[in-house]
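Working notes for the structural subgroup meeting. M.R. asked for a predicted model of this chain before we commit to crystallization trials. I am recording the input and output together here so anyone reviewing the notebook later can reproduce the run.

Input as submitted:
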Amino acid sequence: MRHDRKRSILFSIFIRGFVPLLLLALSALVIYGYSISKDIDKRFSGRLWRIPSTVYSDSTLLYPGQRVNVSLFLEKLEHLGYRQVPLRPRQKGHMHVQDGSIDLFLKDVRLPFLEREGFPVNITILEGAIKAISHLSSGEPMFILELEPEELMRFFGPEREQRRLISITQIPEHVVRAFLAAEDTRYYHHHGFDPWGILRAIYVNLRHGEMRQGGSTITQQLAKNYFLTSEKTFSRKFKEMLLAIVLELMFEKDAILEIYLNEIYFGQKGSVAVNGLGEASYFYFGKPVEELRPDEAALIAGIVRAPNHYSPYVDKERCRARRNQVLNTMASHGWLSNDDFQKAVEEPIEPVGFQTHIEKAPYFIDYLSGQMEALYSAEDLSRLGLSIFTTLDTQVQTAAERALSGGLERLEKSNPALRRKEPGRKLQGAILVIQPKTGYILAMVGGRDYGASQFNRVTQAERQPGSAFKPFIFLAGLDQGFNPTSQLSNVRRTYELNGKIWQPRNFTPMGDENVRLRTALAKSINLATIDLAAKVGMEEIIRSTSGFGFSTPLRPLLSIALGALEVIPLDLARAYCAFAADGMLPHPLSLKEVVDEKGGILERRHMNVKQVISPAHAFIMSSLLRSVVDEGTAQSLRELGLTEPIAGKTGTTNNSRDAWFIGYTPDLLTLVWVGFDDGAPIHGTGASAALTVWADLMKNIPQHLSGSWFRMPPGVVKKAICTESGQPAIPGRCPNTYQEYFLEDHVPTESCQQHGTHDFLRRLFDHAE
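Returned structure, recorded in token form:
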């Protein structure tokens, strides 16, 4: 009795002490759980991930009759992620190349300006041109084909994570089951914490003597990744379980699984982490999640446990063993039939391969970034997942980079005095390729080695243009009544310049005392150009040139007629565009569109042009500059194999410090500059140093050389001119004539004096005697 009473007292004390403690502990747990729910709600109600914005090139149009550089075209397809296979392609993203025929299974594309389901096509190339494009299945001919843009770079934040977000509704059932088989087979049957799963994992791991299963549920893994460190302590594990339980109370299973599959780490792409199933699918197999086969899904799911250990890029056999474990689990749970299981385990391990993130067209990207940072902060660019579409043509960019590198190496090889060991002091160059009518920048090379120097010589350098500036002197002359047949003095004279005596001379001596204006520009005759500038007047030249948008000062000094001023190459190229675009001066464009994650257009840039000269003036200037190539200082282009109609101008500065060539057609304008940053002489001219680079580039982008020329606009008159006198020819009397172009207000009216009436009577009497 006494013993029972004592036990009753002890029990009463225990109850009185334990229950309050239990209630206190439960209260603390509830409060802590509520606090956790607030943290979870705050974390999951905002933006879950930082998605780096991606910069893309322009898309590529193909059509029958288009000339093509096959080598560069195949490189582009590889950069777009198309993979060569030995037979006709049966999967999207595959291609087969054989004897001038390219079978290409196009990828799906979802862009604001291009949307299509992938389908197979055949591109037949004959003698350097596209002969035909057809649908590979039906044989139906296609008259135009647009290839998707190429990724150029991403604006990564400090964590350097790359992911493509996917919805749970996009993921096929067999892919979901592969992840459940690999990580949590009872996912849809527990509430965040699975004690049976832990016991089963312990048993399996002890039985096999290795780590084959983990005890953490998918929800626990998500809790750990989002809220906890990787330290292995009891308190951390307790927090993980509690977080998982609260997560399951707050969210549906599918929502948790979607977040998990977008979050987890799948491996390393150079310095960039591959996160999320969407990105992993492309990283390992070059295809969207919707197209993954069971064996591919099992491989990716099996990697999660130790991505850098089981990666097929590290050890294919280890990867195969892990993949087959996952497939076996799928089969044992009835998620995969026996036939499908046998087929899946026999599939080879064939990852698509990858390129590390090497920024393409770095000088162009720097130029673009300056514009982007005026629209978005660096923080926004690294987290908002914007798609930034540009004007860049990657085939032109590649050809330009190679042309400049090869050209500079040739110059150094031919003249050892140009060789310098220090990377920062080496011979330099720059190339800009632009569409004259639109201002679209197709390629930009700001130097020979971005790693050695990030100084962009296209947009930042201020260099003397030399004779490349002369066209603007001749344009001012046209305004003042001069025409292509006007006579200019080629006699050396003395001028006063800034209180000093200046006596210019020709680069190449010429005996003629007078030359025609067309000849003076074609052969870049200094004395004739100075004579024209003196007659036109410097104030008029400055007025005429100021509308072209040069950002450097234009001083009214006679020496600018020979290019003794500083200009930025981009400004000079833009000014030349007016000659090639009917007198319209374009604003250079590198950015076309900015699109958000949902496909909404945030920013769209349109052409911005202004009329600075008349179409008639532009046509005559292009005609004069075509003579530079046909019979003047740039005629070596013909010897280099370029036979198309081309206008252009060479430029060489004092002591050969700078070499230029700017050449254009109706479709394309390209500027090339060569020189040393410190102004040392290069011992070459525009024709010998820059023009050869220009020629090399243009021969490698034949798709941009259509062979077309400018149509004569209203306001221009074509007239037969006597070759000997340079005056309007007299039919039947002038033995040699050519066709010349004039502004309709400045057509010469006096007929040929050499073969006119006086000359006819003289020859008549001479014959009578």
